[in-house]
Amino acid sequence: MTSTPVENAGTAHLNVAIFVGNELLQRGLETVLRHLPIVGRIHQCASPAHVERLIADDDLDIVILTSSWAQPVERGTRVKILMLLDETQARNPAFAAALRSDGFLIQQELTADSLGDTLRRMAAGEMPIPARLARELLSHAAVPAALPAGRRQVNLTPRESTTLDLLSEGLSNRQIARKLSISEHGAKRLVASVLLKLDAPNRTTAVVTAIKIGMIECT
């Protein structure tokens, strides 16, 4: 398994490391990444130490991992982790929730389009989660809908409520914009407003909070 960096031509800008412990999967990911315009340098890493060196050198944007190899890797302040789960892991919300990750993909559903979209969303500060996994995580997180003592009711506008519902389905800003027939910038503003009102640092936390206080139902 090589650890030599590969560089795409053009205006690419994301530096991505692959560390998955399976040579066939590793080479397949490299082939897909080579054809994604958003990706610049590609590092095939053979050990946790190699990943940690790249992080220490501030030379990475995203590390692609599988759960069995994730634990030894120390997190940097800038690098983001994309976790690849297999079918069994994706059906285990407690397992997925315990992983330190900034985004998820299910290996059996991995395509060039899904990988490219996930990397773009992570670069934009989103936390992409496949809809199926999001539903499992939210079901696991759901508790009886009762407002904690002293907590005020969160008041969303009708458009913000619709946006929250779409967030619970795992939609990106671009997909929300299409659903609402507005610009992507407008969708981004709506999402930011929902997160602010729910006092949530990210989209997943916003949806979990909304479930816990009874604003949306988890079916």
Automatic annotation (TrEMBL):
Cite the entry's keywords alphabetically: DNA-binding, Transcription, Transcription regulation
Is the keyword DNA-binding in the record?
Answer: yes
UniProt record, GO biological process: regulation of DNA-templated transcription
| All residue ranges annotated as the HTH luxR-type domain in the record | 149-214
* SUPFAM superfamilies membership: C-terminal effector domain of the bipartite response regulators (SSF46894)
Question: Quick check: keyword Transcription in the entry?
Answer: yes
Note the InterPro entries from the entry.
Answer: Sig_transdc_resp-reg_C-effctor, Tscrpt_reg_LuxR_C
What's one Pfam family the UniProt record gives for this protein? GerE
Which GO terms label this protein's molecular function in UniProt? DNA binding
What is this protein's name? Answer: Two-component system, NarL family, nitrate/nitrite response regulator NarL
Q: Which species is this UniProt entry from?
A: Streptosporangium subroseum
Lineage, opening ranks: Bacteria, Bacillati, Actinomycetota, Actinomycetes, Streptosporangiales
